[in-house]
């Protein structure tokens, strides 16, 4: 598994993956309106503090993830996505472990944060398994089609690489 820079030639792949209004909101929150377009993706990804990555496995595009710089040593993980046909294989954890290692080594991050919708139990469980802890829950700040979606804010302090991260990086 590899994380490569997400480039304009990958925009169509992301547009194909994010194929419904609900999935768009679950994945992108209020930052993207549906449907995705090249212009919307370009506008977001060209921001100085946004670092998007395409995840590939054996030459196949399997996912997408972003780091957003908050301060020199604090980055936020955003827009985590694994393509439907690759779900249930543990790829999110592997992709995120690679991103965590990249944040630590290439961006000198010492602190990571993220937000996940409370009802997205699989994602929340994945983040918890990687050592992220809930720091707060925002109620009533996000809604989709009139239904409130509570937002769980999580964070993780980065330390030296663990042997588990090193092993997963090599897969």
Give the topology, please.
Elements: E1 2-5, H1 11-17, H2 21-28, H3 38-45, E2 50-57, E3 60-69, E4 74-82, H4 91-106, E5 111-117, H5 121-129, E6 133-138, E7 143-144, E8 147-148, E9 151-157, H6 163-169
Parallel strand pairs: 4-5
Antiparallel strand pairs: 1-2, 2-3, 3-4, 5-9, 6-9, 7-8
Helix pairs in contact: 4-6
Class derived from helix and strand content: alpha+beta
With strands numbered from the N-terminus, the spatial order across the biggest sheet is 1-2-3-4-5-9-6
Radius of gyration: 15 Å
Globally, the shape reads globular
SSE string, helix = H, strand = E?
A: EHHHEEEHEHEEEEH
Number of strands: 9
Question: What can you see in these coordinates?
Answer:
With 171 residues, this protein is an alpha+beta fold. The protein is 32% helix and 32% strand. The chain has 6 helices and 9 strands. The chain has helices at 11-17, 21-28, 38-45, 91-106, 121-129, 163-169; strands spanning 2-5, 50-57, 60-69, 74-82, 111-117, 133-138, 143-144, 147-148, 151-157. A 7-stranded mixed beta sheet has the order 1-2-3-4-5-9-6. A two-stranded antiparallel sheet has the order 7-8. β2 (50-57) and β3 form a beta hairpin. The chain is globular. The mean pLDDT is 93.
